[in-house]
Amino acid sequence: MSEQATPNDKPMPALTGLHGQFYAWCRDRELRFQRCTRCGRHRHVPREICAHCSSMEWEWSRSSGRGTVFTWTEVVRALHPAFGAATPYAPVVVEMEEGVRLLSRVVDCPPDALQIGMPVEVDFQQISDGLTLPVFRRAAVAP
Amino acid sequence: MFKDKACIVGVGETPFCRKPGSGLSEMGIQLKAAVAALEDAGLKAAQIDGILPFPNVGKAEAFAASLGCENLRFAATLHMGGAAPVGSLRMAAMAVTSGAADYVMVPGGWNGYSGARVRETAATDVNSIPGGEIARDFYMPFGLTAPPQWYALMARRHMHEYGTTAEQFGAVALAMRKHAQLNPAALMHGKPLTMDDYLASPMIASPYRLLDCCVETDGAAAFIVTTVERARDLRQKPVYIMGAAAGQPYPADEITNRADFHRTGLTNAAPEAFRIAGVTPADADFAQIYDCFTFEVIQQLEEAGFCKRGEGGAFVENGGIELGGRLPVNTHGGLLSQAHVLGIAHVVEAVRQLRGEAGARQVADAEIGVVTGWGDFGDGSIAVLRR
């Protein structure tokens, strides 16, 4: 289930270029990372070229959606006015099975219950008609 | 190479203040510091032919026009955030020893308290930092909006991997505050701090409490670099630049995808600087370490080679970085307890120590000192100086 949020004055990504393509997949409820079609490595954030093999050939490869909590911070005092009502909240770095990491939130876990290594899986949070953010939920420990 | 061929010949600072603010524009306060540095050196503004301003707070052309530098021929800004001043110190040494300029001014300052609050604006202007568009598109929508939050991600990971503790962060805050009691110019002079005070301070972005964060300040500072030959005619005893280097983490514009999460710009820059200088970290009599937040001191002590990675927490405990300890750090009180003027004051303090002008906080017989910078997601710079 996705959480419906109303549009607000929180900072929004620019939905253009490669960054916009990443979010376009999220709007379709798919988490995809660039994958180099020459050397096979995934990358995030989006870039024009593979930093390992210099290939400019790549595809949007669908992620398993599974990862673990790598690190986080609990924001108790908002340092941006748009997040004042949201505190406390925790930006979390998730390390994905594909090896890339991304900054997100674990929406069903209070900050004081977060643990490094905690398994999580992707979900999507629609912010507006044009923007859906990839977020995470706690997952069962992988078998 | 510039080893021992370039030196710092002038330093200047304004008073540091919070309420009610400096009463000057950001350019005005920096010009005040620049004039103080010229006076200290015994130089005329017209002799300055190189200016390396801090990013986003002033342009070389405006400094030159305001001060009367009619022969500006070397102007650049390093986009390394708080690593820029020491990176600019290195660039100034390269410039004067290559002949690109004769006298290079490095100014910096801001109305960091009464003007635009850095805590609220740091990532809102995508042009303010090299990773600005990435922060806008991949960090800010999730509420990661400001420097203490960026670096808290690193601090948390360090605590997890090495068992670094809140009390060890607190030891950094206490050491800086203790030094500030010996520095009448420090904002926190007359305001001593205990570990209980530290632990009771409100959480901002865990693991960072309020007292892990530096003090937003109105103020400015500046220093001037020239060759050893030119320094002979000037007012002050020169402080020699033995070695200096700068570096970037990888990737530098994005925090989360670093294969080695603790490798910062300093990791590579420090060995280069010490190699050029021909000394080791153990030879340093003091270090002025860029202390935007407490953990950054622990991390830089490790990455600069003062101790091994993971041992920084133990290094700062039990007075280890206080005056009289194994390595006095931030003898002026640092960004945490003196003032946050973008790291320039760390260079000024190193010069004062090496001139023997540090008064009650003087490191006895200080001969060699280290100064670092840190900024923009972990860029690093370092200089090894001697009297």
Overview of the structural elements:
With 143 residues, chain A is mainly β. In chain A, a hairpin with a 5-residue loop joins β2 and β3. Chain A has one helix spanning 17-27, and strands at residues 3-4, 32-36, 42-43, 58-62, 66-72, 91-96, 101-105, 119-126, 132-138. Chain A is 8% helix and 33% strand. In chain A, strands 1, 5, 6, 7, 8 and 9 form a six-stranded mixed β-sheet that branches. A three-stranded antiparallel β-sheet of chain A has the order 3-2-4. Chain A has one domain. Chain A is globular. Chain B has 387 residues and is α/β, with parallel strands linked by helices. Chain B has a single domain (6-115, 214-386), classed as Thiolase/Chalcone synthase (Peroxisomal Thiolase, Chain A, domain 1), CATH 3.40.47.10. Chain B has helices at residues 26-41, 60-67, 84-98, 118-121, 132-139, 147-162, 166-180, 195-200, 228-231, 265-277, 294-303, 312-316, 334-338, 344-355, and strands spanning 6-13, 50-51, 74-75, 104-111, 203-205, 208-209, 218-227, 239-247, 286-288, 368-375, 379-386. Chain B has a nine-stranded mixed β-sheet with strand order 3-2-4-7-1-8-11-10-9, with helices on both faces. In chain B, strands 5-6 form a two-stranded antiparallel ribbon. In chain B, α1 (26-41) packs across α2 and α7 (166-180) crosses α11 (294-303). The longest helix of chain B is centred in the first third of the chain and has 16 residues, at 26-41. Chain B starts with 5 loop residues before the first strand and ends with a strand. The mean pLDDT of chain B is 96. The interface between A and B is large, with 38 and 36 residues.
Outline:
The complex is a heterodimer of chains A (143) and B (387). By secondary structure, chain A is mainly beta.
Unreliable stretches covering 5 or more consecutive residues of chain B? none
Portion of residues in beta strands of chain B equals 15-25%
- Integer count of domains of chain A: 1
The largest sheet of chain A is: 6 strands, mixed
From the 3D coordinates, which CATH architecture of chain B would you assign? 3-Layer(aba) Sandwich
Count of helices of chain A?
Answer: 1
The CATH C-level name of chain B is: Alpha Beta
Helical content class of chain A: under 10%
- What is the average of the pLDDT values of chain A? 93
Rounded to an integer, what's the Rg of chain B over CA atoms? 19 Å
Number of domains of chain B: 1
Helix content of chain B: 25-40%
Give the termini separation of chain A. 24 Å
Using the alpha-carbon principal axes, give the shape of chain B.
globular
What name is given to the CATH topology of chain B? Peroxisomal Thiolase, Chain A, domain 1
Structural class of chain B comes to alpha/beta
Low-confidence parts of chain A:
1-7
